[in-house]
Each structure stands twice: as structure tokens, then as C-alpha cells.
Amino acid sequence: MKTLKHLFDRNLAWANEIKKSDPDFFSQLSKQQAPEYLWIGCSDSRVPANQIVNLPPGEIFVHRNIANVVVHTDLNCLSVIHFAVEVLKVKHIIVCGHYGCGGIKAAMEDTDHGLIDNWLRHIKDVSRFNAQALEEAKPEDRQNLLCEFNVIEQVRNVCSTSVIQSAWKNGANLSVHGWVYSIENGIIKDLNTSMSSHEQLLEANSAH
Ligand SMILES: [Zn+2]
User: Are 174 and 164 in contact (CB under 8 A)?
Assistant: First the structure.
């Protein structure tokens, strides 16, 4: 008996459906990928990159982890960014967080979650950097506000990587954006934190 047969059945039906409307879809796509976007998002099952911007396979290069965190020493994330920028030559990097993020919620709690607390430490730092604004917000708004602050911080982290710094130095046409997605209505909000040069990063860092 085939394990998870229903998933293989669904896969076959999906592939057949695509081939029906575009017989060359897979043979064309198998030759190369040329996505314009790198998506750095949360692992949450409700926030699938391609589906929420309605793009087919081949259009987005994706990295996901809990609470869409970009850590300066995370070789996995850095390798994805490096490959996307240096080899695929993506034009846009999108850090997309989401309201109601379980990782953000857990980072706000003062309880033991085990191993993941080491990862959530990075979000606790974001919370500390923005302590005053969070303190001044209504208690019921704080979690979603931290989701936004986290995205803004991760955009800066992406921009500060050696990969992006050297791409900009070499004149690459590359922008980094911060978005937040609502799992309640399916709508993405632009946090207007986009950066496309080293100067913009310096400006943002000096403002905060
Ligand atoms: Zn999440």
C-alpha cells in the first residue's frame, strides 16, 4: 500500500490539470527557473507564498522559517539569499510576515517552549528594540504590532547581509520589501519599508 496515497492522487490530478491547459508547461519550466522574486516568509501552513500572490511554479524562490526571521549567522537563509541574488538575479526580495503569527505570540510569552525559545530569542530582541512603541500600544494590538516590527527588522537584516551589500555596490537593481499578510482576510499590506540602496539602509538605521 502506498503511503499517503491521497497526496499522490492529488498530485497527479494537479499535474494533469495544468497539462490540459498548457501542454508545454512542465517541459518549458524544467529547462530553467528565472524567478524575479525571493520570498522570505513564515512556515505557517496558512501563508503559502505562491498561492497568496497567485503565481504559478517558477515565479518565486522561497525560504520559510518560523516567524520569517533572517539571522546573520543562519547559513541556510544566507545561502538562499546568495543563490537568489547571485545566480537567479532576482529583482525583489520580499519579507512577508503575517498577523496572528504563533512564533510572535510565543516570543511575547514568558513561558518555556523548549528548543524553539532559542529561535524566538531573535524576536524578543525585536520586542526590546521597540519596547516603547509596544508599551504605548493597546494590549490587544501589541502582537500584530510586533509582527510588523519584526518584518521591518528582518528587512534591515536582509539589507545588511554581505550578499546584498555587495550586490548594491556592484550596481544591482535589487529591492527589499516588507509586507504583512492577514490570515483573516487574505490581504497583504505593504509596510512601506522598501530599500534599494546602501544609503537607504543607513538612513533607516540612523532614524532608529
Ligand atoms: Zn507565523
Answer: yes
Catalytic-residue membership of 101: yes
User: What CATH class has 34-207?
Assistant: alpha beta
Identify the active-site residue in 9, 10, 22, 46. 46
What are the backbone dihedrals phi and psi of residue 92, each rounded to the nearest 5 degrees, phi first? -135, 135
Predicted structure pTM score: 0.95
Report domain extents, the chain: 34-207
Is 24 an active-site residue? no
Active site residue 208: no
Compute, in angstroms, the gap from residue 44 CA to the centroid of ligand 1: 5
- Is the separation of the CB atoms in 100 and 183 below 8 Å? yes
The answer to whether residue 177 is catalytic is no
Q: pLDDT digit of tens for each residue in the chain (208 aa)?
A: 679 999 999 999 999 999 999 999 999 999 988 999 999 999 999 999 999 999 999 999 999 999 999 999 999 999 999 999 999 999 999 999 999 999 999 999 999 999 999 999 999 999 999 999 999 999 999 999 999 999 999 999 999 999 999 999 999 999 999 999 999 999 999 999 999 999 999 998 887 6
